[in-house]
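Could you help me review a protein record that somebody else here produced? This is what I was given.
***
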Amino acid sequence: MLKIYISFILFLLITAFCFADESGLTGDTPPSTEMKPADIAPPVAANPNPPAEAPLAQPEEEKKQEQPSVSGEQQPVPATNEQQPVPATNEQQPVPATNEQQPAPATDEQQQQSTPPPPNSREAAAQDPAITGAAVKNPLVKIEDDDDFCFFLPPQPNVEVAPTEDWGVPYCTSKSVVKGNKLFPDGFITKAHYYKNSRYTQVTGYMDPEKFGLIPTDEGGQYDNHHKGKPIGAQCKGYKYFVNLLEPADYRFCIRCCDYKEDCNTGISQYGCIRVIDGDYSYDELVNDVFHTIIEQEHHMERVSPSLQEQVNRLFDLSKDPSTPPKQMKHEWEVFIDHLVETYPSEQHMLFRASQTTLWFKETSQWWYFLSKLVLEVHQDEQGAN
């Protein structure tokens, strides 16, 4: 019995020892390194660049400031240099306006250019109260002689004649001609030729457009009492009809008052004074002044060949021949004037005006009369200069 008991005890001890050896509970045998599949982690690739030495531990407060409050996936990634807006460069930033860019004060010429242009049509003029308001009731003109006469002018300065014909205003040389009419400015009439016969009376001549403020490039327009009249209701005292042209670009004016309609042709205004109102358009004083100035310049120049005296004499000799056509005389005169313009360019404008005074010549005899006086005037000026 005892042997059986001892054998049983030994069996228990051996069994316990073997169990302890398998479970690693004994201190002599290390525990098993066998790992379950769930405990095996994937291999991590080796870092070819080993990390630098860890910096010193920072205080907890600094760590809290650096550590985001949310995870890296939730925290927005700070913008890189490419993502962050780049401050505007000098080219991108608006540059303050320089003196050249800032608007400069307008000059007198710029202010004149900014002024609305004068009306260039009858419709536009009709919308301008300054023009329509200047019209007078029952506008009346009159011709008495070469000192006392009236004709129409635009309703105000610096407007063209043609677009404002309906609102023309009568002006006279003196208050006694037509009471209530305005007076021409001083120096406005520079030359007047009066003529009268049993059918009509007229005045033809020249003016100084600047004295009234007429536009110097304006080709002009026509006033008459055809239909309702231009201006409306216009009349010439003592006559049934009248026609009156104004030509600022040529410094010319003309007016005729007629008993018969056929003597006052109102349908060819485009041809101007010389065609509409046949008359005297000479201006000897102007021509003489122009050639006197040229003679003075000639004497301060080297020998001019041919001289002015020689050129005028040749024209005069040509005009003495009655067989010389008027057209040839006109052509020779124009060649003469062109030559003078080339020689004396400073006198171009005045030479043009002097030449305008010959446009009404229709006969060679008119050229002869004109040149006979010019030859004498040039000869006297040559003698005086010497």
About this structure: Residues 23-57, 59-74 have pLDDT under 50 and may be disordered.
